[in-house]
Design brief:
Layout (H helix, E strand, L loop, with lengths): L3 H6 L1 H10 L5 H40 L4 H34 L18 E6 L12 H8 L2 E2 H7 L6 E2 L2 H19 L4 E2 L5 E3 H7 L17 E3 L4 H5 L6 E3 L5 E10 L18 E11 L4 H18 L4 E5 L11 E9 L4 E10 L3 H6 L2 E3 L6 E2 L1 E9 H11 L7 E2 L13 E2 L4
Parallel strand pairs: 4-8, 7-13
Antiparallel strand pairs: 1-10, 2-3, 5-6, 8-9, 9-15, 10-11, 11-12, 12-15, 13-14, 16-17
């Protein structure tokens, strides 16, 4: 969430940033009005408490001298009643303020392109050249079923739309991709592997910004205040919730491979074919905890680390800086990595790397301290390193052959017992 001091001291800046993100400034106006009422009530409470204390002392003096203290006692009772009413009002105001604060998005970094939507996104660089084929390349939703490794119909039969069953080399390829990514990030990039819970509580989702605003995107467990994770960002970032970390131990870089579950509310009719938008998928997630001074260096490093996955797989991609109108709720700056998919003749997102600055840290009470100095909020970052199912899509489409088979990238062969080519399953 945004700092209250910022909302009070720089409302014009906040209004401008909200407008850049396509958000109405009305919520900020309501917040400022409530905050003014809260501060007025708080000042009155403090004044009344001082008055109560002075009156109580006077009662003691009057009683000590044998004088009548009834008027002073009545005054104290009236003051206490007024204080109780004001404190109840303050509790209500705090709740209203918190509700607005939890709904306000992060402010974009100055380097983020300004624009209303994805059309304002800026391509920062391209890496690799898309392959050329002597035939018309096909999409994975045709390749996978013909190879017998992806079955969309049986997945839907078991669970419903946007679920897929993998068989044989398809299941093995999904597992191999995840293992390859984990090994790369741990052994070459220095990440600490984490296996977090796949179910989280409400506080964890509030901490990373999914709740309360995006409840419709989550799968909630009936009868429990637990949720299936939409991404490993949620449990991994919350591992240190409520802690103050020694700055000497930062940055901390974590990597986790988990299933992810998303209802995809509001996306119906979009990406209905294939594996691009599923209710259940696997992802290797990168999470960094950093000092405010180093977080943007960490964002650049994280983006490079995610890109190396694609480079080792021989996949062409581009790095795109998201505009203000396309940023995620918690992000101050995001780079999307978009991989080339020849079967769709398009670049498609396969990773988003974001610096949330102190936005999540304030919600999750994540702080850092150097030596005996004052504690301060640290910065959190997260990114896909990368989405496993989409990487599988990219491999199938980029390595397809004229005979319908698919070559296995050399980087994956050690994880597939030397398999060099995927052919139709007998």
């Amino acid at each position: 969430m945004l700092a209250r001091d910022l909302l009070r001291s720089a409302p014009d800046r906040v209004r401008s940033a909200l407008a850049d993100r396509g958000q109405s400034p009305d919520a900020l106006g309501a917040w400022l009005e409530l905050d003014g009422a809260r501060r007025t009530a708080l000042q009155e409470v403090e004044s009344l408490k001082q008055r109560r204390n002075e009156a109580s002392k006077q009662i003691g003096r009057l009683k000590g001298s044998g004088a009548d203290a009834d008027a002073a006692i009545a005054e104290v009772a009236a003051v206490k009643e007024r204080i109780a009413a004001l404190e109840a009002r303050l509790d209500g105001l705090d709740g209203e303020l918190a509700a607005i604060e939890l709904a306000l998005p992060n402010l974009p970094h100055d380097s983020v392109p300004r624009g209303a939507d994805e059309s304002a996104n800026r391509v920062e660089r391209r890496v690799g050249e898309p392959p050329r084929f002597g035939f018309e390349p096909r999409a994975h939703w045709d390749l996978g079923p013909e190879l017998g490794i992806l079955d969309f119909e049986r997945g839907a039969r078991v669970a419903g739309a946007r679920f897929t069953a993998y068989f044989g080399a398809g299941a093995a390829l999904e597992r191999a991709l995840a293992q390859f990514m984990l090994d790369l990030h741990v052994t070459e990039h220095g990440y600490l592997e984490v296996l977090p819970p796949y179910i989280v509580n409400r506080d964890s989702l509030i901490g990373t910004g999914q709740l309360p605003k995006f409840a419709a995107d989550l799968f909630k467990l009936e009868g429990h205040d637990y949720f299936l994770i939409p991404t490993a960002e949620v449990p991994v970032t919350n591992l240190h919730r409520g802690e103050t970390l020694d700055e000497e131990t930062l940055p901390r870089r974590y990597v986790a491979w988990t299933p992810c579950f998303r209802s995809e509310a509001g996306s119906y009719g979009k990406d209905v074919r294939g594996l691009i938008r599923q209710h259940q998928f696997h992802k290797v997630e990168l999470v960094h905890l950093a000092t405010p001074e180093t977080s943007y260096d960490e964002l650049e490093a994280m983006t490079v680390h995610a890109g190396r996955v694609l480079e080792r797989l021989g996949l062409a991609y581009r790095v795109v800086s998201l505009s203000t109108g396309d940023l995620g709720f918690s992000a101050a700056k995001t780079y999307d990595l978009e991989v080339w998919l020849p079967g769709q003749d398009a670049y498609r997102e396969i990773s988003s790397c974001s610096n949330c600055e102190d936005f999540q840290a304030r919600r999750a009470d994540l702080r850092c301290r150097r030596g005996g100095g004052k504690a301060r909020y640290l910065h959190t970052l997260n990114g896909s390193g990368v989405a496993v199912g989409r990487a599988l899509v990219a491999v199938l489409e980029n390595y397809q052959q004229a005979d319908g088979s698919v070559l296995v990238p050399e980087a994956l062969r050690p994880y597939l017992r030397g398999l060099e080519r995927i052919v139709p399953r007998a």
